[in-house]
Design goal:
mainly alpha; 2 domains; Rna Polymerase Sigma Factor, Chain: A; Arc Repressor Mutant, subunit A; 8 helices; globular
C-alpha cells in the first residue's frame, strides 16, 4: 500500500491481483449478479487509486477498507436498480451446476445433489434482508471475525453477533422450506410417473 501511494504501478497491480477476487465474491454474494459484482470490483479499485490516502491502517486492515467500499457500492447499486431476488426452490435452474463448482466424474449423483444444495444456499442467502445478508456473507462466506465485520459495517460487535444469529436462523427456515417444497415436488412427479 505504501508503494502504491508513492506511485508504484506494479505495487497497485500486485495489490489488485491479491484482493480483487475477495471483493468480487463479496459483491457477487451480496447482489447475486455477476454484472454488478464486476462493476463494483472495478469501482472499488478506482476509488482505491483515487482516494488511497483516505485509508487509515489504525482503523482496520486493507481488506476491511475494501469490503467497506464494496458494501457501499453494492448497496447503492441495489437501491438504484431496486433489485429483488426471489427464492424459488422448484425452478428448473436449480439443477444447473454452477460454473465455478468442480465436476468430479466419480459420483454424478453426489455432484448433482451438491450443486443443488449450493444453489439453494445461494438463493437463500440472496433472499435475506440486506443487513442479515451482509453479516452472513462477511462472517460465514468470507470468514471475517466479528470485529472486522463490525468495522466494515460501521456498527457494534454485538450488532454483528445478533444479526448473524438471526441471519442463520432465517437461512435455516428458508432452506427447510426449500427442502419441503422440493420433496413435495418429487412426490408429485413420482405419482405422475406411476399413474
Amino acid at each position: 500500500m505504501r508503494l502504491m501511494l508513492a506511485g508504484d504501478e506494479e505495487a497497485f497491480t500486485v495489490l489488485y491481483n491479491r484482493r480483487q477476487g475477495a471483493v468480487y465474491r463479496f459483491a457477487l454474494h451480496m447482489s447475486g449478479s455477476t454484472a454488478i459484482a464486476e462493476d463494483v470490483t472495478q469501482e472499488v479499485f478506482i476509488v482505491l487509486m483515487s482516494e488511497a490516502a483516505r485509508f487509515n491502517p489504525s482503523r482496520g486492515s486493507l481488506s476491511t477498507y475494501l469490503y467497506g467500499i464494496s458494501r457501499n457500492h453494492v448497496l447503492r447499486r441495489m437501491q438504484r436498480d431496486r433489485m429483488f431476488v426471489p427464492i424459488e426452490c422448484d425452478s428448473e435452474d436449480s439443477n444447473a451446476a454452477s460454473p465455478r463448482e468442480p465436476v468430479a466424474e466419480a459420483d454424478p449423483l453426489g455432484d448433482l445433489t451438491r450443486s443443488e444444495t449450493v444453489e439453494a444456499v445461494r438463493r437463500a442467502i440472496l433472499s435475506l434482508p440486506t443487513h442479515y445478508r451482509e453479516v452472513v456473507v462477511l462472517c460465514e462466506l468470507n470468514e471475517m471475525d466479528y470485529a472486522e465485520a463490525a468495522n466494515v459495517l460501521g456498527c457494534a460487535v454485538g450488532t454483528v453477533r445478533s444479526r448473524l444469529h438471526r441471519g442463520r436462523a432465517l437461512l435455516v427456515e428458508k432452506l427447510r422450506t426449500c427442502e419441503e417444497v422440493s420433496a413435495a415436488s418429487k412426490e408429485v412427479n413420482q405419482a405422475r410417473c406411476f399413474a
